[in-house]
From TrEMBL:
Coiled coil: none
Organism from which the protein derives: Cryomyces minteri
Any one GO MF annotation of this record: alcohol dehydrogenase (NAD+) activity
Cross-referenced Pfam families: ADH_N
Key words, A-Z: Metal-binding, Oxidoreductase, Zinc
Transmembrane intervals: none
Cofactor(s), by name: Zn(2+)
Species classification: Eukaryota, Fungi, Dikarya, Ascomycota, Pezizomycotina
Protein name: Alcohol dehydrogenase-like N-terminal domain-containing protein
Domain Alcohol dehydrogenase-like N-terminal: 51-166
Domain of life according to the entry: Eukaryota
Amino acid sequence: MFKGHREHPDFKRLGTVPVEGLPETMLAAEVHEFNKPYTIHQVPTPKSLDPYDLLIRVAVASFCHTDALILSGGLESTPSGFSGSHEPTGTLYAMGSAAATLGFKLGDRVAAVGWRDPCGQCDDCKGPNSVHHYCKYMKGFVGSTLPGAFQEYTVVDARFSVKLPDRLSFETAAPLTCAGATAWRAVKTAIQGVEKGQWIGI
Ligand SMILES: [Zn+2]
Ligand SMILES: [Zn+2]
């Protein structure tokens, strides 16, 4: 899915920042065997952040159909060994050197979906916002090819994250980031040319 990762030019210009103050390890619910429950392991906490990384203390991480496919071996031939979930909400603990330019600050309540580190140079990255996630040169996808959100802390990409309004709970927001957004986009597309009061099927 992510063949030939290309680094965004900001990586070299801005570099990485170290993470301080976290315990050495944390708990993670990982995929080590297909068609078996997640297993709990102690894993290292993140030690450095790339420019657009957000390190969040996970509050809620939801389970998507993609997680079911990953658990059953429907996507890859070998178990990922990573924790599941690409739909986290939580509190911003630390961030990379470019994330503040997008308006994030420590302590923010955030929600994210799992794409990380698009190349910034391909046609999809330079296209409209609605196609950025098609970049073929991403570093990977949280909960699939990168550690997921079924762990105490996780790293997401500021460009695929939003700050949560106070009135929206962590529990409500988490499944909106992938499953909810997918259905919402379908509705937005389907209602073009539909009159108010008509039925649509999604
Ligand atoms: Zn790209
Ligand atoms: Zn999903």
